Predict the structure of dTTP/UTP pyrophosphatase.
Amino acid sequence: MAVRPHDAQGGAQATQTAQTLVLASASPRRQDLLAQIGVTPDVIAPAHIDETPHRDELPKPHAERLAREKAAAVAPDHKDALVLAADTVVAVGKRILPKAEDEATARKCLKMLSGRRHKVISGISIVLPSGKQLTKSVTTVVAFKRLSDADIDRYIESGEWDGKAGGYAIQGLAATYVRFLSGSYSSVVGLPLFEVGGWLNAHLKQN
Ligand SMILES: Cc1cn([C@H]2C[C@H](O)[C@@H](COP(=O)(O)OP(=O)(O)OP(=O)(O)O)O2)c(=O)[nH]c1=O
């Protein structure tokens, strides 16, 4: 399978690899983001883990723990592969917002995000064929404009909140609510490409 991680300057390195890359994720966004840097996983193997925060768990350790657990859950079935997993959380202060699975939750999240800054934290983790596991996280600050009831109704109507951490997707209509962003746009969408690209360049075995 051909994998072409880009170098730090953004130029494509036409490299081949014999090594299997497993993406431990059901998120189509994460596949799209990898495609953006020329990477096609050999295997998509979603991890099924309990994503409930531990009591008093802070957002950053939570995102890192879930990314680590997702990669570790899938790795035993793919011994010689490099397994990549991620978890994206939206946090207001110490509070972890839920992944919106229904309208009421999405509405609550949007009201909480309206007119204020929040953090989006993506934990990423890889398990190397040696069994060694690396985990880190990337934090991005996002500021939303004040949302009117009409804004919220329109957003709920769009359905774009479905399955998204914090009830919004920056890559869609919600882009018009983002007054300011400091950090990594790709991390907000679900996978920090600077960090993941660096890991793949460093650890994917090349012929
Ligand atoms: C904040 C934000 C989140 N999201 C998405 C990314 C993730 O898919 C989702 C957060 O949930 P995650 O639990 O990180 O990922 P997932 O359940 O979709 O997939 P898997 O656990 O199998 O990897 O929210 C966006 O697409 N855009 C955004 O702006």
